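Exercise 7.
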Amino acid sequence: MHRLVPLLLICHALFVANLTVPSFAQEADLDRELPTQFWPDEIDFDDTLTTPKSFLKFEIGQRHLTHAQVVAYLQLLAEQSERISLEIFGQSHGGRPLVMLTITSAKNRERIEEIRAAHLQLADPSTSDDVNVEDLPAVINMGYGVHGDEPSATNVTPLVAHYLAAAKGPEMDRILDQCVILLDPCLNPDGFERFADWANRYRGRLPNPDPNDIEHNQGWPSGRVNYYWFDMNRDWLPAVHPESRSRLKKYHQWKPNVVLDYHEMGTNSTYFFQPGIPERTNPYTPKQNIELTRAFGKYHAKALDQRGSLYYTEERFDDFYMGKGSTYPDLHGGVGILFEQASSRGQVQRNQDGLLTFHETIANQFATSLSSLQATTDMRRELLEYKRSFYQESMNQARQQDTRTLVYTCPNNRSRLQAFAEVLKRHQLDCYWLKSDIAYGDETLTKDSLVVPTDQAEYRFLKSLRMRLQSFEENIFYDVSTWCLPLAFNLDERALRRPLPDEALQAVELDQVFPSKFSSAADDLAYLIDWTDDAAPRLAWKLLDAGVRVRVAMDRLVTADSDRTFAGGTLQVHLGTQDIDAAKIRTILKQGADTGVFVQPVSTSLTPIGFDLGSSEFPVLEKPKVATVVGPGISQYEVGEIWHLLDTEFSIPLTKLPNSRLRRTDLSEYTTLLMPSGSYDLTSSGWDDLRAWVRDGGTIVLTGRGARDRLDQLGGMNAANDAVVNDSDATTSQSEEKLSAPSETSKQQPFNSRSTERALRLISGSIFETRIDRTHPLFFGYPHDTLPVFRNHTANLPLSRSAYLNPGIYTPSPLMAGYASDANVAAISKSASVVVVPNGYGRIIVINDNPSFRGFWKGTQRLLINAIFFGPLVD
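Solution. The predicted structure, written as tokens, is:
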């Protein structure tokens, strides 16, 4: 279906193209390989179609394209070619369109819905045998540029699209007849635009190949990340962002046979295509998938050999984490293939082989784009039969398991269960709400539990997202070693041996709204707000931002109006102490209750159990004003996770202080300073100023990798004469960069094992169990005394000598999922996850793990939110 890009967008793209064209006559030495020179020989073209050069007024590869230019050209091409249709299927955080080209023959286009339906039938074991694949085209999804600073990926797409639109001859007819091509030109428009601006801004008339030139050293944040500074190639599983959510919806409309995933890597590399290291493959990926990937590799090798390009396979990269673009299809009956091209970053850069030009990087990506199409065409029948057998085998595996039903609960936190259910739904996993309490053997399954049958076609994917392996074929990982979603969401899971009756279940819907139970009366004295639901902090902020005076319970209580026990962290809004209209307050409370927060009207301040409403154990909650540090030296990922959480989940403003200005910033107007992983631009006097701010009542929250080092710069654990536990195993930081000295019995090791030995000492990303103090303000609202945390570093945090200042500690056997060496596990078990260091009227809160990892660690995100709201109450 054609969707028109606004005329203004096309005009803007043409304006930019003409405005920025330099004289390329003086660059003949860099033009030795222009696109017309690396297109296949003996191919005729339809010259009525606009070429990229005639549209842009320069050759592809002579400048970095903007996203607007790419979209405008592809729209024009779709209007001119009967082979192509263009659809806008979503938009980025920054409002840029996500576009998809569907390219195929006229014959296929006439029955495109029939073809799509047949592909969905192949993925349904109950109907897959009914599909005749004799004349069914394969579906190939060509995805480019999930990392915006890997520019050859998206810059090649106008060439690929024009070739598929204009090339004529028997071979092109064969490809178009036997394939439906879904071309996704830019998976990360915001990051791509950020990098294009950088590269074009610093490109001179004579491009500079010096790697030290600013053109090759982009600013912070990099173009790799999206609008909120996330790595979008890790978001296929959690689907936190609109780009991923839209893309998953489009993916499952087709469930393609082949997915191409185009990237770049370091300038001193060559070219990589999968398969990667065989031992580092997801355990639920069939072996036939690797065989098919290897068969594709022969086509890529031939294409690159013809070009004289160096390449490699089965090294460095893996196929393990299911949330990457090249691995996700492997667990959905397709074949995902990763491509990595050495990057020139700018126009030309010196590397170990001489000069690497932008033209060359695009040429290689073009070559493997065509080789992928040829391979898909030649292997069409095999790919279709593989998809059929994949889903049939998945269903057979599901029916052979003892577990037939999974039941998830999260006490008094329907928002958390809904968020988890929506992730499952986005991956086409069936899930249901339990309509009412039902008996199951000797136990009762409670209403509103989330029910997930295991007897379903996407069983392999369900099994992988729950995976809690601790033993692996090889203990080295390109990315994380675990990602268990139920642990990330801190859910209770029960495995049942039989299915539940259909009449007891209600289907889950995306963005589901639940009826509010809130009621109010004119004579209500106050309202209590349960802090447990994930929507409660959003309501708290709305109340505070509106000027409502809010108190917080420091311990449990039961009111005279309800027999419900309210835990510490319960908020109180007493109408008699307010300066604003009660009707406005009730409106805000009703809005909060509509999102799932439990709000209880109260008719008296006297409570039968616990402190009365006027007690000093109900201190007034201060409105947070939060700042964090951004800029060179600071982890763009961790800052982005914090920014995204506060901005999109809770609508809490976040001031982003430049690292270079931190020492000159007056912090007196802020309640909380968040300091994620990184190197801070502070002198010793700057650290002294931060300590003084804390002593005057400020709250600093240190998170993630290197938190211990930042704590030391702030005065360490002795900031308030609070000595650490004297345990060398617990306090010694295990460096991730240095190997320990060899023992007397092992003073020599094989040189070729050095990188493996180092990797085995790392924690690439594992899940550990902590024991938490639920009476502590930092853990208000938590349902259990244990909490899974995600960790990707080996530096341990010592325990405070004061047992009251260790609200989160690792359990004696902490490893829950993923890989960690025995030595690392032993050291972690004697250390702290969360420590509070008081200093004067303020405090430093140290969270040694990453509380909002990739935006989906719901269990520990609440810890960060509690630190913001309740940190000033920690004494």
